[in-house]
Design brief:
By secondary structure, this protein is mainly α. The protein contains two helices and no strands.
Length: 85
Amino acid sequence: MSVDDVKRTVELGNEAVRRGCQILEQALAEATEAGALARATMHDSSHDEVEKAKAKLDSLEREVELAIRRFEAAVQYANEYVDKL
């Protein structure tokens, strides 16, 4: 495999990661909207199951944000690798 082949393969991988980021960002937006509606519905409740649901919503948002940051870091590291070739 030539250096140009490696560069092209890395760029194709970066494109896939960027698409993955877009999908995750859209999913996060939809989950955030759904979470806001759920929170509005549950706002007066302090039932244990409601508190667990709120915690799960918070966890979901954090995990998706972390995944997006990991994807972005992967692209950055891949670009740094290609720059060194």
